[in-house]
Design goal:
The protein is mainly beta. 8% of the residues lie in helices and 38% in strands. The protein folds into three domains: 200 residues, Collagenase (Catalytic Domain) (3-Layer(aba) Sandwich), CATH 3.40.390; 75 residues, Immunoglobulins (Immunoglobulin-like, Sandwich); 272 residues, 6 Propeller (Neuraminidase). It is built from three helices and 46 strands. A hairpin with a 2-residue loop joins strand 12 and strand 13.
Length: 617
């Protein structure tokens, strides 16, 4: 079928209802598949490799919505255990003919009816499902068929609610196992019905396009809320089986990863920018094309590119990569005009066993050293950018110090018992910090007066004021690190992250809309962390986290200590990606463009620059 209009049919007589959340999830899936029509970035794009005499299939799907069929089930179906119903395929054919005629629904090739059955109801036919087995899928998890001829043709798929043995063994993102097995089976049958609607289309001795990759999922693209996904369809994550690629003769479906770095902080007339997409990678196969658009009406090709802008300005650069299976992915970055990145960055430089504070403008100018005592960590710029609070480590404890942004007047804050991970209040009058050893989070006025203990708990660390000053975010260890939020006076501590990925070092955005933090993404079977730290961005309440620094190609490295730009558009963080020796440098990430960051050339890798803090000034 060259294009498809999908009708979702729930055949649910009274007393046979599916859970509403289940029905909503299936409807949403079909809507997302339709909304992504024409894209080359998901498993349905592989259908365009198949053709008939009229030409190739187009990934052009329309979702016609849901029809609730409450017609009672006919009697004398296939034999079934007590309390269950086993429908003959002939009965489903007859019901679809009745339903389409009664409701004036369209028929003919190009229409596809997805019949979803409720719990304890299944189907059998003479081709694939010879019996209804409610304990395991002996013959098939689902099937597709057709009835009628010409304009009366009805192409349909039938998917039971919960047939054991069809599970992809991965919980669907934001859903549950039953939804995932339904969506996976539905995807399987949809693709086969499109390429072989009346059993006269594409077929091989080992089956149709989906049969050849049955329950083969391939590598995951990432993880959202503790569940893996291998597809992004209309910006929604799914875990679907792969389909057969007629182009390369292998199972495929995941798009390539598109990532690139640029080596400039801005654009100036007559100056060249250098772009490098060699970190892009195919999940299956290999990259065959790199296409660039530079935002000024020009374009380029190749894994690396350079470009000279005729005038200074802000430009949107986009990279599209295509793999050998014809799947594509696109990523873009807005490169600001030179000088558009405002504010000052302070970071630590670790060299020769010494750790000191350095500062530089975000546009790469005015580099200067602020401290020289060699034991300085966790800098925090004041909101006005004029002072830096930081930790000075001593033999058995740490102390809270403050220094001016020009390096003058470095002094210990009196009456502060410690200084681990400080953060300024928005008005610059107070500083919160943690005490090493995991005992308390404390607050003190910047002049050393007004010391107070705010909270006790399980190793509370990394406090950070909210931008309005009414709350404090922090992390705590209760078997794994999680993020918490409390009122600025220490009352009402509330946990806001609940996964087992060790969320710590929270940093709310200046506009109050988002929260950046560190997280380890995986644990082994004994519960120990096994992978490196990434930077996540979530909503301010801790929900909907997105890993913005997980690069799917190359070695896994640590990305740590996020700090926002004053306009909340960028995040600075420390990373080991600057070389392969374990040294660290500072990257700036475009928050709207995850997993593709602009490298700030503030320091060479040998400086081990890390722990950035960013503010106005």
């Amino acid at each position: 079928m060259h294009s498809v209009t999908t009708h979702l049919v729930y055949w649910e007589p009274v007393g046979r209802d599916n859970p509403p959340s289940y029905d909503t999830a299936i409807s949403s899936f079909l809507g997302n598949v339709a909304a992504a029509s024409g894209q080359s970035s998901n498993v349905f794009a592989l259908d365009t490799q198949y053709c008939d005499k009229a030409g190739p299939i187009s990934y052009q799907e329309t979702y016609a919505g849901t029809t609730l069929d409450t017609q009672p089930y006919p009697k004398r179906g296939c034999a079934a255990p007590s309390g269950t119903v086993c429908l003959k395929d002939t009965q489903i054919k007859a019901e679809l003919r009745r339903l389409t005629q009664a409701n004036g629904l369209t028929t003919g090739l190009g229409g596809l009816y997805a019949v979803i059955l409720p719990a304890n109801v299944a189907a059998c036919n003479s081709f694939t499902l010879r019996t209804c087995n409610f304990k395991s899928a002996q013959d098939a998890c689902a099937y597709h068929e057709w009835t009628g001829t010409g304009t009366a043709t009805i192409v349909y798929v039938v998917v039971p609610y919960d047939i054991k043995g069809c599970e992809p063994h991965r919980e669907a993102v934001g859903s549950n196992e039953i939804v995932n097995e339904t969506v996976t089976a539905l995807s399987h049958e949809q693709n086969e019905a499109i390429t072989d609607p009346t059993n006269r289309g594409w077929y091989s001795p080992s089956g149709e396009t989906a049969d050849k990759c049955n329950l083969t999922f391939g590598p995951a693209l990432g993880e959202v809320e503790g569940a893996l996904y291998n597809q992004q369809i209309n910006s929604t994550a799914y875990y679907l089986q792969q389909e057969w690629s007629n182009k390369t003769g292998e199972c495929a479906g995941q798009p390539p990863t598109a990532t690139f770095t640029d080596q400039r902080l801005g654009t100036s007339a007559g100056e060249s920018i250098s772009l490098d997409a060699t970190t892009s990678a195919a999940v299956v196969g290999h990259i065959v094309n790199y296409t660039w658009t530079f935002g000024d009406g020009t374009s380029g090709k190749g894994a690396t590119a350079s470009h000279v802008y005729a005038s200074t300005g802000t430009y949107k650069v986009q990279l599209t990569v295509e793999d050998s299976n014809g799947l594509m992915n696109t990523v873009g970055i807005t490169i600001p005009a030179s000088g558009a990145l405002s504010g000052t960055l302070v970071f630590i430089r670790s060299e020769g066993g010494q750790s000191n504070l350095w500062a530089e403008k975000a546009d790469g100018t005015s580099l200067r050293q602020l401290t020289t005592d060699g034991a300085d960590y966790h800098p925090a710029l004041s909101p006005d950018g004029k002072q830096v609070a930081y930790e000075v480590r001593q033999a058995t404890t740490s102390k809270l110090w403050v220094v001016n942004i020009d390096g003058s007047s470095a002094h210990e804050v009196p009456n502060a018992p410690a200084g681990y991970g400080p953060s300024w209040s928005p008005d610059g009058s107070k500083i919160v910090f943690a005490e090493p050893g995991g005992t308390t989070i404390d607050r003190i006025n910047a002049d050393g007066s007004g010391f107070v203990v705010l909270t006790h708990g399980s190793n509370p660390t990394f406090p950070h004021y909210s931008p309005d000053g009414n709350a404090i975010y922090f992390s705590t260890d209760s078997g794994y690190y999680s993020l918490w939020r409390m009122n600025a006076d220490g009352s009402n501590p509330t946990q806001i992250t609940f996964n087992d990925q060790d969320a710590y070092s929270p940093a709310p955005s200046p506009d109050g809309s988002a929260l950046a933090y560190n997280s380890f993404s995986e644990r082994n079977f004994e519960g120990f962390l096994t992978s490196n730290s990434d930077i996540y961005v979530a909503k301010a309440d801790g929900t909907s986290p997105i890993d913005i620094t997980h690069w799917p190609s190359g070695p896994r490295t640590d990305e740590t200590y996020a700090s926002w730009s004053p306009d909340s558009a960028y995040i600075a963080y420390g990373t080991e990606r600057c070389d392969n020796t374990g040294s660290t440098c500072i990257y700036i990430g475009d928050v709207a463009r995850p997993q593709a960051s602009t490298e700030i050339d503030l320091t060479p890798p040998s400086w081990n620059a890390s722990e950035p803090t960013w503010a106005t000034g």
